[in-house]
Design brief:
CATH class: Alpha Beta
Strand content: 5-15%
CATH architecture: 3-Layer(aba) Sandwich
Number of helices: 8
Helix content: 25-40%
Number of domains: 1
Number of strands: 6
């Protein structure tokens, strides 16, 4: 069956999110708010008809996926390729600390946002390559029209920009457990953006967006 709708989901909140730290592939667990956010999202997704749930292997994503899978009664498929960008030596630092401690490297990043490889980590184009491969496998294996992918900010933005060409995704702040949806009419048709950073399921709960090293703030 052709997949016609994909929901890209960011994991629930962690204490590192709240502190503004770069998480990358760190094993940061959900905090209490993050657990509640995931529970709310699981309840919301029950009416959408998600047939497959694919999840990054980072701890925060896996926890979010387990909560949602239990609500939906669907199996959970982990995929290491869906992980966030490895931020190497910058893991655990705030943007201000990165600017202060690694000024030359940070300047180099700003000059080549997609190609620069963070020391000990990845370039955004490397993230896109593995996300592209993961998505191709998901689309070839999925058995329903709607699938959900729990991944991370940089990973989601990179693959969605390639699929849709939309600047809205690139410029958006993705909040915890936000849902960004794309759809197509049939296989081979272009993907189109339906929603970006949808958090209506949180019903006024506190949310937290992410600041990436690429954000010029």
């Amino acid at each position: 069956m052709t997949v016609k709708r994909i929901l890209f989901i960011r994991p629930g909140e962690t204490d590192w999110n709240r502190a503004g730290k770069q998480q990358g592939i760190a094993a940061a667990p959900l905090n209490q708010l993050g657990v509640r956010q995931a529970e709310k999202l699981g309840e919301f997704l029950r009416v959408i008809g998600v047939s497959g749930l694919y999840v990054s292997t980072t701890r925060r994503a896996a926890q979010t996926g387990e909560i949602i899978a239990a609500k939906l009664g669907v199996s959970l498929t982990p995929d290491e390729r869906l992980r966030e960008r490895n931020v190497g030596y910058w893991q655990g630092l705030t943007i201000a600390e990165i600017r202060d401690w690694y000024p030359d490297q940070y300047s180099a990043l700003q000059e080549d946002l997609d190609g620069y490889r963070i020391p000990g980590g990845e370039a955004r184009m490397e993230v896109l390559k593995r996300m592209r491969e993961a998505l191709a496998d998901i689309l070839s294996q999925a058995e329903g029209e709607t699938v959900a992918i729990i991944s991370h900010t940089t990973a989601i933005k990179m693959v969605l920009h390639e699929l849709t060409g939309s600047r809205d995704v690139q410029m958006a702040d993705l909040t915890n457990t936000s849902v960004t949806t794309i759809a197509r009419d049939s296989e081979g048709d272009p993907w189109r953006i339906i929603t970006v950073d949808d958090v209506l399921h949180l019903e006024g709960m506190e949310t937290n967006s992410v600041i990436e090293p690429e954000d010029k703030r």
